[in-house]
Protein 1
Amino acid sequence: MGLLAAIGRVFISFLAATGRLAVFAGISVSHIVRPPFYPRLLLRQIIEIGYYSLPVVGLTAVFTGMVLALQSYTGFARFNAESAVATVVVLSITRELAPVLAGLMVAGRIGAAMAAEIGTMRVTEQIDALSTLSTNPYKYLVAPRLLAGFVMLPCCVLVADIIGVFGGYLISVHKLGFNPSVYIKNTWQFLEVMDVLSGLVKAAVFGFLIALMGCYHGYYSKGGAQGVGSATTNAVVSASILILAFNYLITEAFFAQ
Amino acid sequence: MSEAAVKIAIRGLSKSFGANHVLTELDLDIRDGESLVIIGASGTGKSVLLKNIVGILTPDSGSIKIAGEEVVGVTGNSRDRINRKLGMLFQGAALFDSLPLWENAAFGLMSSHRMGRDEARKKAIDFLKQVGLSEADANRYPSDISAGAQKRVGLARAIATEPEILFFDEPTTGIDPVMGDIIDSLIVSCVRNLGATALTITHDMESARRIGDRVAMIYEGKIVWVGDVAEIDDSGNAFIHQFIHGSVEGPMASLIAANASV
Ligand SMILES: Nc1ncnc2c1ncn2[C@@H]1O[C@H](COP(=O)(O)OP(=O)(O)OP(=O)(O)O)[C@@H](O)[C@H]1O
Ligand SMILES: [Mg+2]
């Protein structure tokens, strides 16, 4: 009986949290489309999420591309299919690895920063001060971040696609002895628009989720420094898990077609 | 007192946090154009009262009317419209730490009054000067200045839009006596010159006498005394007597005992 009650309590609090998150997301999205807009704040977030994430995302992509070339070569060499390396590298990068790895890296960078900033604003009553100045905190704080995440992560991932493929090219040509022009031809040959596009759709969803988790956990943080600290942790962990879960869902949706 | 002369009418206001009953059936009238000072021991719910009036907290029950209009439960655009008439200084200043000082002071001008950045900046710098900061300080950030200076920027932010009703949560706490005197005169001149209604929380009885027309004392979730500032010395009220003399003996002994046990 005690066990059942405990399970019930956990289940109900899970439902309550999901509902609260859904309401939070709904309100925030409604503020993205309704004026007044804050172009200055949006630009700041675009630079923060897009531009400043590039080094991290680029490094992740280049090493991943390099490893991918080596690993797939090891496998394909066993049945004399080395020529497939270029195709495997570009498909893995664009469809899967660039969006997921960039998403996870950006979740650590941006999700944490958002939760810490908004959480600090909550516990120091800055969010309360916003509303006394007739400024809606959803519109002022949350909407620009969600929009910037949604738009900028695909941009980062597009750059990561190029850098990742380039990493694979470097290893294949300089270490594995591929002919450069043949490698490039193989890269293009079997690549479809949908491969890149599905990766970018993933990235847009991940970018939205990262910003949503950062803002949500920051917005509802309480207590002092400790509350902000746990909001930051929760934002990164929940964004990472959601990225992996949504990665599966989106992959399956595209797979069916 | 006629109904028209009341700016804020609070009736039966209750607010609890779990088992902590902070405000219980509190009644208070704030007259149009007056400066009312609220005094009371630490933790008696003065800040909570202010936050209920400006809509940061929602009361459990009771009514708050601002200029005859019920504001409890009002949210969204209607709340923004009401809040445009209000200005608030937070106990902890609550400055936006990502914005320079001038933009903090100009925030209300740009958000609710739709003023352009250049004009708002000029006006904000005027207000910053009034609270004793220089033009050179305007581009600094809240984390670069002392707590007392932050409080003064918070004051500039509250009065910059020249609102009808001003709320000051301990405006002179943490501020030196000379600057405190300047702040007090600024509050008085806001009330006199703008015709604003002001509600100030303070622990400083000197300051209360300077800025208040009337004084209200809060204890155990209720207003236990309201009267003209001239009457506080011979109010005949045991709570007021104990508070202004800072005495351990008196009806608030229970509070002191409770605090001592924490
Ligand atoms: N958001 C909140 N959640 C839970 N309890 C709260 C909250 N805000 C205030 N309280 C409680 O309400 C009580 C009154 O707090 P309040 O800040 O109004 O005191 P105060 O009269 O302003 O004191 P001080 O003079 O020290 O500022 C305290 O016991 C406090 O713990
Ligand atoms: Mg207080």
Protein 2
Amino acid sequence: MNLNYAFMLEDIPVVLSALPRTLGLTFCSLFFAIVTAVLFGICILKNIPVLKQFLIGLNTVIKGIPLMVQLLLCYYAIPYLLRAADGFLGYVYNPKNPSYFAFAVVAFAINYGAYMTDVVVSSYRAVERGQLDAAYSVGMTAFQGMFRIVIPQAVVISIPNLSNYFMWLLKATSLASVVNVFEILATARMSTANNYAILEGYIVAALIYWAVCVIFEKGLNCLNKKMSRYRNDIVVS
Amino acid sequence: MPMVELKQIKKRLGGEDVLNGVDLSVGEGDVVVILGPSGSGKTTLLRTINFLNPADSGTVTVGGLTVDSAKHHHKEVLALRRKTGMVFQNYGLFKNKTVLRNITEGLTVVRKIKKEEAEKRAYELLEKVNLADKAGAYPAELSGGQQQRVGICRALALSPEVILFDEPTSALDPELVGEVLKTMKAVALTGITMIVVTHEISFAREVADKVVYMEGGVIVEEGTPREVIDHPKDERTLRFLRSILEDSMDYMI
Ligand SMILES: Nc1ncnc2c1ncn2[C@@H]1O[C@H](COP(=O)(O)OP(=O)(O)OP(=O)(O)O)[C@@H](O)[C@H]1O
Ligand SMILES: [Mg+2]
């Protein structure tokens, strides 16, 4: 195959310049996804009537719609909502400068929040119940037992699953290229607009994604090993 | 005045009467062993004493503090729990904490004792059960017998007025039962009040001041080990003792 290697070399820094945007998108989405998952998870675990059933239903709806479709829905629907909210509580709608980045974050946070809700619920339930009794037996309050014994263990249990979702999310942010967010993929495509080295541009993008993923994968593995030192009942790979 | 007094403890679970008005009085420094077949309500009774599962009605008195099961304030429950310790069938150690932290946790978090002091106390106790070298290990790195001895240290660390033991040896491999029973005997010798649910008849015979036989959520018979184990008056007690003695015979063969 006749690739334009010189252009590829030149293109690397150009595409790399979009890495902060991809990472920003990933971490913002991750943050709000976790917040969503924890809030949903608490409502489900606390068995709050109606709300629990509603959230479980909502979860299946979110999981049943492709992420791409959710991104497009947010892209077109959020501006409508914002316009409707114009003047509400002093909010001023500015149609000239929509934040496509924020719209994408909303879509990712909703989608991944739904999946991570399951992780929150199952990790919490995986903590052996007897330990809370033991915490009470030494005189701890419900709050102390929760924050000193149960939640730290639930967090450790959730790390492998959350790491997987993180890696998927990192790669899924490339979908945001179709809704006007200039992350790695969109930048790679644009950088080839003036020549015909389209394939080269995508190869550069692929290499950058791969390198970033390898680094995060290694880091998360280390974190998991460190955090789950106290569990010898599981094999940490 | 008795150290622990239960009056008319009643509890329903899953539409069934599990405890049907239990009265029990335990003197200071006494070791009471509760015997009874599976499902007779022994665990449920122990857990009503420290309000892990409060009874529906009846009163619990520990060390002069009386709490009404039917209407209890959570402050009363916390105060009552600070007078009791508990040792669990499945050890119940905090998996994310080292042996040392398992023991100091209640001292530093609940009693607000300084860390150094708490650690000193923990090491003293670990020395006594020959586990000082395991202070930095996590529960998953210990044998069942070692975990249970740590569980006993954790309960002792808080100097409770009474310690509740719920079948402390029944999750253990047979060869590990001895070391835990030995520790429990040593604890009994310190003069602390103990309420022990167990099927270890030899322990009851040697250590107990009082043996209580429960069945169907009531106390059928109580007295000295000699009275209850060697000369049971009630047909049900006799039948139960025969069945577990037969089991242990099978075991020996
Ligand atoms: N959460 C619950 N819901 C419904 N029924 C329960 C519950 N917990 C216990 N029970 C019932 O209460 C009865 C007494 O149980 P308990 O655990 O106190 O017995 P036990 O004497 O400790 O038995 P074992 O020797 O097997 O430990 C049993 O019939 C059991 O089925
Ligand atoms: Mg039991």
